[in-house]
């Protein structure tokens, strides 16, 4: 994942996206809402800390399954190391939802 601010690369982080049988949507969205301590309603209350929601139930959020970062592992969300997710969450809160874009390409 590449985070840019004012057109300059600020961070590059390993992520996990959808594993086989699931899809991480591609496209461009503004952030819709933030949840510091979210739990999935769809997947057995799975923890989704520092969630930045961008398309329905899809979010960029922290994972504690660190060994799987860099490989497909999720139900469709974009998973980050907790430290990186906290930083992204903070940046989104500071910039505002309308100024936070999530762009996903293959």
UniProtKB/TrEMBL annotation:
<keyword id="KW-0808">Transferase</keyword>
<dbReference type="InterPro" id="IPR005490">
    <property type="entry name" value="LD_TPept_cat_dom"/>
</dbReference>
<dbReference type="GO" id="GO:0016740">
    <property type="term" value="F:transferase activity"/>
</dbReference>
<dbReference type="InterPro" id="IPR050979">
    <property type="entry name" value="LD-transpeptidase"/>
</dbReference>
<dbReference type="GO" id="GO:0071972">
    <property type="term" value="F:peptidoglycan L,D-transpeptidase activity"/>
</dbReference>
<protein>
    <recommendedName>
        <fullName>L,D-TPase catalytic domain-containing protein</fullName>
    </recommendedName>
</protein>
<dbReference type="InterPro" id="IPR038063">
    <property type="entry name" value="Transpep_catalytic_dom"/>
</dbReference>
<dbReference type="GO" id="GO:0005576">
    <property type="term" value="C:extracellular region"/>
</dbReference>
<keyword id="KW-0133">Cell shape</keyword>
<keyword id="KW-0961">Cell wall biogenesis/degradation</keyword>
<comment type="pathway">
    <text>Cell wall biogenesis; peptidoglycan biosynthesis.</text>
</comment>
<keyword id="KW-0573">Peptidoglycan synthesis</keyword>
<dbReference type="GO" id="GO:0008360">
    <property type="term" value="P:regulation of cell shape"/>
</dbReference>
<feature type="active site" description="Nucleophile">
    <location>
        <position position="77"/>
    </location>
</feature>
<feature type="domain" description="L,D-TPase catalytic">
    <location>
        <begin position="1"/>
        <end position="105"/>
    </location>
</feature>
<dbReference type="GO" id="GO:0018104">
    <property type="term" value="P:peptidoglycan-protein cross-linking"/>
</dbReference>
<comment type="similarity">
    <text>Belongs to the YkuD family.</text>
</comment>
<dbReference type="Pfam" id="PF03734">
    <property type="entry name" value="YkuD"/>
</dbReference>
<feature type="active site" description="Proton donor/acceptor">
    <location>
        <position position="61"/>
    </location>
</feature>
<dbReference type="GO" id="GO:0071555">
    <property type="term" value="P:cell wall organization"/>
</dbReference>
